[in-house]
Specification:
Shape: elongated
Number of helices: 0
Number of strands: 14
Structural class: mainly beta
Largest sheet: 5 strands, antiparallel
Strand content: 35-45%
Helix content: under 10%
Strand order of the largest sheet: 3-4-5-6-7
Length: 171
């Protein structure tokens, strides 16, 4: 079976099952979308379209948007995202690799950098931390260590050994 624009079956045809189209396909209407219905196994229906100037990949079966891109080009993943691992196994964003760098975040020009690889976490630039910082192994520092609790008074440095003995260094 075919569909054509002439009504008499004499023009260019679009097969109802299979076939190849060349050129653009345009859907013009309020909130246009292309529906994808999976008929194998458990029915799962998705759509790709726009909604209020937002590009949307929608899980029609669950009646929820899975992924959107706003007109300001901000992307939102509604569920968990996995890179190199099944999404949602441990976190909202999980990146896994068995070799090399697992994750890298760079500022413009690489002046500040966070790199997670198979041996640890490396930073470049200022590392600011609030709360308790615990090191369960040897820590090596090259350069100055600055303690500043922003209280206006001198902060203290506490050292503790395995017997829970404390030493305090303060100004």
């Amino acid at each position: 079976a075919y569909v054509d624009g002439s009504g008499g079956g004499t023009g260019p045809f679009l097969p109802l099952a299979g076939g190849t189209m060349t050129g653009d396909i345009t859907i013009s209407k309020v909130y246009p979308k292309l529906l994808l219905n999976d008929t194998t196994g458990v029915a799962r229906n998705f759509s790709v379209g726009t909604n209020n100037e937002t590009f949307t990949v929608r899980n029609e079966t669950a009646s929820s948007d899975a992924f959107t891109i706003s007109n300001a080009n901000n992307a939102t993943f509604v569920g968990a995202v996995g890179v190199g691992v099944n999404a949602g196994s441990n976190a909202k964003l999980e990146v896994a690799s068995t070799t090399g760098e697992v994750f890298r975040a760079d500022s413009s020009g690489g002046a500040y950098r966070l790199v997670v690889n198979q041996t640890g976490v490396n930073t470049q630039g200022i590392l600011a931390h609030s709360g308790t910082l615990t090191c369960s192994s040897t820590a090596t520092f090259a350069g100055d260590i600055t303690l500043d609790d922003n209280s206006g008074s001198s902060p203290s440095l506490y050292l503790k050994n395995g017997d829970d003995n404390f030493w305090r260094i303060f100004n």
